[in-house]
Write a structure and sequence with these properties.
The chain has 397 residues and is α+β, with helices and mostly antiparallel strands. It is built from 4 helices and 21 strands. It has 4 domains: 84 residues, conserved putative lor/sdh protein from methanococcus maripaludis s2 fold (Beta Barrel), CATH 2.40.420.20; 101 residues, Elongation Factor Tu (Ef-tu), domain 3, CATH 2.40.30.170; 73 residues, OB fold (Dihydrolipoamide Acetyltransferase, E2P), CATH 2.40.50.100; 97 residues. Strand 16 and strand 17 form a beta hairpin.
Length: 397
């Protein structure tokens, strides 16, 4: 009995010691791992952009006038030379009671001025006839040597002066008659007297063949010279404009491949950069931060039938391919961290973790190229917590 009791107590003591030791031993850290693998790696710059017609023609009013209503709708096909709209001369002003009274007074004044000019013409004609008769009489007296040559010359000069005064009076009659017509016209033509067909119309024709992209001024009304009325372009000739950060723009060169994503079609579209504009501009981001942006213009190289439903001003997401290679050893970006003066990863091996210095290469948004330090198939810890350290026990989730 004593021996059995001793054995039981020894077993209980061992169990208690084992439980205490197990309780104070560090538990394995749960981690997520992924294997380093060879795959295609693509380094890109992704930004949102929009399509636009390459050649857009804004048709404007050549002169100020009254525009007739535009009968075109957005999307209508036009041929070069087709009439887009017509311009009439500007309409007359409305005569209020005071303006009408003033216009009637100007008519009466013009009539009186015409009568006065006619009377002056009558007097000038009488003077001219008298001077002519006086000149003929003195010419006969000169033949009889009754008067001197000086008196004859004086009579001839008076006749010429009288003739000039007659012509001046006749011109004054013409001027007064035209002034009377102008006064009557101002009284007759008023916006309230009813609209008649304009004697002159300015036709505005399509400069090129294409489709109507925008009708800026549809209703009739007064337009100023140079005011935009209609925009025309060819929606089949599209380009994509994307504003990127200036620090990314310096990495993009003419001829860089572009992949257009999430534009509405089932498959991405291919493109190529045509222009990287040399001038930047300031843009306020959604977070209120000032950013220097640069416009990058790209052409769509995919067949037209693949994007025929794409139009002007449509949203696309552009992915500029800066570098791409196949069979690249890579790990997730979240597995690489700073260590000492370089970079390292946590490698999971046999339930333990060890720090492995690595030499990273090019980076994409989610993966990083490993040039040295890892082998294909080795498991690395992604998103390591602060509890993970060299030599720690781990448990893979």
């Amino acid at each position: 009995m004593t021996g059995k009791r001793t054995l039981v107590l020894a077993v209980l003591a061992a169990a208690i010691v084992t439980a205490v030791v197990a309780a104070f031993m560090p538990r394995p850290i749960a981690v997520d791992v992924i294997e380093a693998r060879h795959d295609t790696l693509t380094v890109t710059v992704e930004e949102e952009g929009k399509t636009r017609v390459i050649d857009r023609f804004a048709v404007s009013a050549p002169v100020a006038g009254f525009a007739r209503r535009v009968e075109l709708d957005v999307g209508d096909i036009v041929v070069k030379g087709d009439r887009l709209m017509s311009l009439e001369p500007l309409r007359s002003d409305v005569l209020d009671p005071r303006s009408r009274a003033e216009a009637e007074a100007r008519v009466a004044a013009a009539q009186a001025s015409l009568l006065a000019a006619q009377q002056k013409t009558t007097a000038a004609r009488a003077d001219s006839e008298f001077a002519d008769s006086e000149l003929r009489r003195k010419e006969r007296l000169r033949d009889d040597r009754t008067i001197s040559e000086e008196e004859l010359d004086r009579a001839a000069s008076q006749a010429r002066a009288a003739a000039a005064n007659l012509r001046s009076a006749e011109f004054a009659v013409d001027v007064s008659r035209h002034e009377l017509e102008a006064a009557r016209t101002a009284l007759e033509y008023s916006a309230a007297s009813g609209q008649q067909e304009a004697p002159e119309m300015v036709a505005i024709n399509a400069p090129v063949s294409g489709r109507v992209l925008a009708v800026i001024r549809e209703s009739e009304g007064v337009v100023a010279a140079g005011q935009s009325l209609v925009e025309i372009g060819d929606p089949e000739a599209l380009e994509v404009e994307v504003d990127v950060l200036s620090m990314d723009a310096v990495k993009i060169a003419v001829g860089t491949r572009v992949r257009f994503l999430r534009w509405g079609g089932q498959a991405p579209l291919e493109g190529v950069v045509r222009v990287v504009e040399p001038t930047g501009f300031t843009k306020i981001s959604a977070l209120g931060v000032e950013e220097q942006r640069v416009l990058v213009i790209s052409d769509i190289t995919s067949p037209r039938q693949e994007w025929q439903r794409l139009g002007d001003g449509y949203r696309v997401e552009a992915s500029f391919i800066l570098w791409e290679a196949s069979d690249v050893l890579q790990v997730p970006t979240s597995a690489v961290f700073r260590h000492g003066g370089g970079w390292a990863v946590f490698v999971a091996d046999g339930g333990r973790v060890s720090i492995r210095p690595v030499s990273p290469g090019r980076r994409s948004g989610l993966a990083v190229q490993i040039l040295d330090g890892l082998e294909d198939g080795e498991a690395v810890i992604v998103h390591p917590s602060d509890d993970v350290a060299d030599g720690a026990r781990i448990r893979i989730r």
